Design the sequence.
């Protein structure tokens, strides 16, 4: 009820939710460790169509300046996840919805992805060039 009143009074939705106590923070980005921040930004920019909005020596980002972003942080001696093993296993993964898995797969492979699982219909698991798992789902 408070949310409806706040939105009706002309406040933006996020601000209204914070002021009404329904939201503690606003999601800004997810950051992925890698030895090559630029290379991984290019990889995910090609998959998502999102623009590269920052590209420094140790930090890159894709997305929208005032919206959600995927960031890539350069970490010396980065140890990639070892999917699906438990030791140094997957800590997180990204999922991307596609219209057609058969059509999308050669495109992500050409960008440097490696297919590692999900041979059932509906999803496939890949590693990005830094070794992080991600899925394509239809």
Sequence:
């Amino acid at each position: 009820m408070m949310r409806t009143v706040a939105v009706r009074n002309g406040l933006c939705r996020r601000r209204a939710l914070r002021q009404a106590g329904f939201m503690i923070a606003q999601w800004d980005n997810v950051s992925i460790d890698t030895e090559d921040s630029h290379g991984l930004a290019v990889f995910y920019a090609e998959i998502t169509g999102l623009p590269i909005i920052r590209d420094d020596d140790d930090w890159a980002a894709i997305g929208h300046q005032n919206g959600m972003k995927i960031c890539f942080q350069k970490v010396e001696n980065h140890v990639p996840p070892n999917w699906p093993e438990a030791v140094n296993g997957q800590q997180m993964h990204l999922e991307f919805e596609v219209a057609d898995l058969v059509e999308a797969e050669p495109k992500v492979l050409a960008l440097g992805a490696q297919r590692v699982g999900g041979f059932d219909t509906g999803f496939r698991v890949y590693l990005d060039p830094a070794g992080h798992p991600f899925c394509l789902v239809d």
